[in-house]
Design a protein that fits this description.
Elements: E1 2-10, H1 17-28, E2 34-42, H2 49-59, E3 63-68, H3 74-83, E4 89-92, H4 104-112, E5 117-122, H5 130-146, E6 155-162, H6 163-171, H7 179-185, E7 190-195, H8 209-223, H9 226-256, H10 263-295, E8 303-306, H11 310-313
Parallel strand pairs: 1-2, 1-4, 2-3, 5-7
Antiparallel strand pairs: 3-8, 4-6, 5-6
Helix pairs in contact: 5-8, 9-10
Bound molecules: uridine-5'-diphosphate (UDP) and magnesium ion (MG).
Amino acid sequence: MKKIDIIVPCYNEGEVVNLFYCAAKNVTDKITDYEIHYIFIDDGSTDNTLNKLLILSAADDNVDYISFSRNFGKEAAMYAGLQNSTGDMAVIMDADLQHPPELIPQMIEGIEEGYDCTAACRATRDGDSKLRVALTNRFYKLVNKISEVDMPNGAGEFRMMNRKMINAVLAMSEVQRFSKGIFSWVGFKTKWIAFDDVERAAGETKWNFWKLFLYAVDGITAFSTAPLRLASVLGSIISASAFIYLIYIILKTIIVGKDFPGYASVVTLILFIGGIIILTCGILGEYIAKIYMEVKRRPIYLVGNTSLNSSNEDNKDEG
Ligand code: UDP
Ligand code: MG
């Protein structure tokens, strides 16, 4: 019988993890042609998430957990889940029931039809604030314009992948991961399923404005080098304008003679050019920081404890 791993990153999800398990189990119990195995990843939660996972895994043989030594972020949690998945297929889903388990049978159908991946795409964003929706839309427009990958707006990490695609995703072992881009970069045939967004069942979102902003910067720098070209473009425009202005001043001096006013324009120009220099240095810094973190090749996550057997534990901190 083929096996499906359900990978669930959990960070302080003590309030919802049981709700999730019951809702998902309701759906997966009806799936009889596949063996279903749950892998919960406790991403360094500070609440009772781990306790709840211990109880679940003790009660159900098909539930395993991996508990990180600290909070490494959802990207690391998803990577750990995929790395420890042994199934023919794997689904990644949030613990807060914003990813309806009812879609799992449709996802299986997609894979059976011959697709490598069945991905859920949010048709609406009712579960998010208006500001977040507006900024998210802007981000997707920008990133799709300047990057080498196509990231559909609303496409998240909620998807089922076959072994071929899982291995491809794992082969991209970059430390600073941006899965939305990775899934699209690896290619493969993807079937899209639209679903309506819902508010999380309980608990709170782990994202605030600043975290989302940094995540957006990560997404752009991970899959596009266009911002680096901004320095050359701005530099050329400013030099060309300066040259034209120089000729104008020379001609003016020859024809009309010398005059001294110009304090305001000089100050404005210095500030303008200074601003651009700092901005482009900042962009360079952003990429250099990425290179710095990447060359250290630190593990993507570290396991505190896990219910998975030792053969899986061998590669637990390989990332
Ligand atoms: N999550 C995680 N580590 C983190 C932050 C979030 O594993 O550092 C998990 C979280 O428990 C949830 C999923 O990632 O299962 C999505 O998080 P959240 O619901 O906060 O994000 P949103 O739905 O608001 O985008
Ligand atoms: Mg959520």
